[in-house]
Amino acid sequence: MTTRRLSWELLAALVEEAAQSSRRRQHLNIHWDYADPCQRLLNAIGVDSYIRPHRHALDPKAECLVAVRGLFALVTFDEDGSIREVVRFGTEGHGPAEVLAVGVELSAGTWHTVIALVPGAVLLELKAGPFDPNAAKEPASWAPEEGSPHATLYLEGLRAAIIG
Count of domains in the chain? Predict the structure, then answer.
């Protein structure tokens, strides 16, 4: 295959898969192989999906996140887990163009998480390859594990800080 059509129907199906997933998110690799020099994937993220804060320090590569559909908040953290910055990014109609970014570029080694702020949100993730699943990301020790009893409360606290 030399082309792949990324349709609105594909995005809708990915959002539906995310809604049915216990993690409330679903990704779709759109690169051809883990050895590709550019790793590309779509990620549908539900508003109740908790992505444990993490960094890409084991295999340090910058990451680019672009909103394809919806509205997101990128939250970056200091080494101790304190919120450093919140950047809202999204597609048209989700905020004033002079305030809302379309996407974010994140340097390697930055502690971060992404939170979907509206239902049906999908982002495009871009990162240099090749992809090494054994060094993909380092979870923050100061943040609760996904699926743990404290994860929901932690996510609610992050949401309050974003909106507050």
Answer: 1
